[in-house]
Write a structure and sequence with these properties.
Shape: rod-shaped
Strand content: 25-35%
Order of helices and strands: HHEEHHHEEEHEEHHEEEHHHEEHEEHEEE
Number of strands: 17
Distance between the termini: 120 Å
Helix content: 25-40%
Largest sheet: 5 strands, antiparallel
Length: 495
Amino acid sequence: MNEAWPLPAGCGELGDLVRNHDWAQTPLGPITGWPQCLIFAVSTVLLSPVPIVLLWGEDGIMIYNDAYSGFAGGRHPQLLGSKVREGWPEVADFNDNVMRVGLAGGTLSYRDQELTLHRYGRPEQVWMNLDYSPVFDAGGQPAGVIAIVVESTERVLTERRLRASEARFRTLTEGIPQLVWRAALDGSCIWSSPQWQAYTGQTDVTSLGWGWLQAVHPDDWATAQAAWREAAETGHLSYEHRLCNAPESRHCWFQTRAAAVRDAQGRIVEWLGTSTDIDDLRQLQERQQVMVAELQHRTRNLLGVVRSIAKQTMAQTGPGETFRERFNDRLSALSRVQGLLSRSDQEPITLRALIETELAALDAPTMQGRIRLDGPVVRLRKATVQTFALALHELATNALKYGAFTTPHGRLSVTWRTCASEDGPRLLVEWVEEGLVRERELECPVTRGGFGRELIERALPYALKAKTRYELGETALHCAIDLPLPAGEAIGSHA
């Protein structure tokens, strides 16, 4: 240990290293020969808790303190007594400038200076605050440079991560369709997203505080205020309300939810929330309720129709195989028309389609040469289709079993037309079978007042306000159906 240099107390580990270093091998020479100005500068450096390095002489011989040794990393303790250019070769040019300016009496200062160092044997990007000042000898000439080195790498990286995080948050909040906002504990707005402002027409200023409430429908103010009072107690916020759609000048339904932002002690410091447009969903739910009610109504009606078919068929045939056959035929007709009704939104039901469906079900297309269909395009209402289809089924079935299709020369003609009347437009349908050969044992059920004739002469007038005429001669059948055409039954060109 060199006892010739009385270092003050508190010089730390570097004080011992400096004292015992073989300075005779450096341009500074033995420590006993150091000038007083150098001893004073070294003592100042060693006593400082701030990372400081003294660069002495033209070569910038490095003498630093404990704080700087931490910054030097794997380069410590080899840096002690080395030339700065050789100690930090990766930034030699930077330090050459430092020595040039400092030994000329100048100062340098850098904030968050980015450098690449090799403190641990690998390149490392670091940022530092650097302040360089000259140290003067007894003659008043610059003899060295003292450098205060404060690494700011962690702060710089933290700030960069924070800015990147803020950018991602901003991208997320401004990219999602929901209206995003932040609110204080009591619900007063402290920030609103561009989506909120674009939707409500408010600005970032007018939406602040309780200004956002002006965008809520007045009838929902009490709901909103009550939700916020409850949120302060429960830590949860969720409610539905109407919000002004400024571009369309109307109010739409929104669902507002928020998550509480808490501090380290679990206390709520603010709310981060979104308001989601549920107007289409609410309308869909309302339509769904109407549809369910309509479905229930139609189901009850359908069950009534099935019950009536069963009752009328049973009265006509009695129990047995004939009942089973005719009941199944009529249920099949009912099923076909339900199929048409289920597709009616995409494929409107026309009178021609209804007639062709019933004839196809009886395999009548094989007799196309004996069938004539003629009339304009008439789209039928859903309320008209079911009863009308059952009547057509009865006529077609009777034509196949008892009428025109039972003889080689029988023919079927179904024509329809529309006309005006004092009560509005009407549809006239004529079902004509010719070439009949009536045999008493084949007399069709219609002529005996069966279910088919019940439909034509009683159900159609009752359900559709139709006027009907059913005439069965020796060689021909003529059935005319005259019914009103409500507004929902459109008339098109000739089919």
